Amino acid sequence: MRLAGKKVISLVHHDFEDLELWYPILRLREEGAIVDLAGEEANVKYIGKYGVPAESDYAYGDIKAEEYDAILVPGGWAPDKIRRFPEVLSLVQQMDQAKKPIGQICHAGWVLASAKILQGKKVTSTPGIKDDMENAGAIWSDEPVVTDGHLISSRRPPDLPDYLREFIKVLE
Predict the structure, then answer these.
(1) Annotated catalytic sites, by residue?
(2) Of 111, 129, 150, 168, most Cβ neighbours within 10 A?
C-alpha cells in the first residue's frame, strides 16, 4: 500500500467524464489512499456523461487544502462548471502554492487556467483546449502525460494508466 495515509480530494460536478473521475479514484484507493469527493453541495449525486453516478462527500467550501495531500480534477464538461466557484479556484491556488500534487485530465485544464496557475508550466490536455491552455501561459505538448513538478496532466481516457503511474509516483 504505497499511499497509505495519503488523503486526496477529487472534484466533481454533473457531466464529468466517467472514466476520468472513477479510474483515478479506484487506483488511488487500491494503493491505500483515502479519496474524498467534493461537489457544489455535500451528499449530492452527480451524474457523469455516460450515466455513472458519484456522490459528493463534501461541498467545495468545506475543503481545506491543509487537510489533503493532493487534488484531482476530472475532465468531461464538469470542469466548465467547477471553475465557476471561487472556493475551488482558491483551493487549487493553495494546493499549487504548497506544491501538492494537482492532477488534471482532458478538459480539467480549464479549472487550472481559471485559477491562474499555468503560467510557464508544461502541460497537456485534450487538444480541444490547447489554445485555452496556451492563452493561460502554459507550454502545451501532445503527450499521454506531462509532469511539471507537482502538476500532472493528461489528455484523455486511453492515457489513464500513464497518468496514474505518474500521479502516484509524485504523490509517494
Answers:
(1) 106-107
(2) 111
Q: Which residues contact 161 (CB under 8 A, 6 or more apart)?
A: none
* 109 Cβ contact partners less than 8 Å away, ≥ 6 residues apart: 79, 118, 123, 125, 129, 132, 133, 136, 138, 153
Residue 36's DSSP bridge partners are: 9
As a whole number of angstroms, the distance between CA 124 and CA 156 comes to 10
pLDDT tens per residue, range 111-154:
999 999 999 999 999 999 999 999 999 999 999 999 999 999 99
Cα–Cα dist 25/30, whole Å: 9
Cα-based angle 67, 70, 94 (whole degrees, multiple of 5): 70
Query: Rounded to two decimals, what is the model's pTM?
Result: 0.98
Give SS3 for 107: helix
Strand 34-39 versus strand 151-154 pairing type:
unpaired
Distance CA 157, CA 83 (A): 21
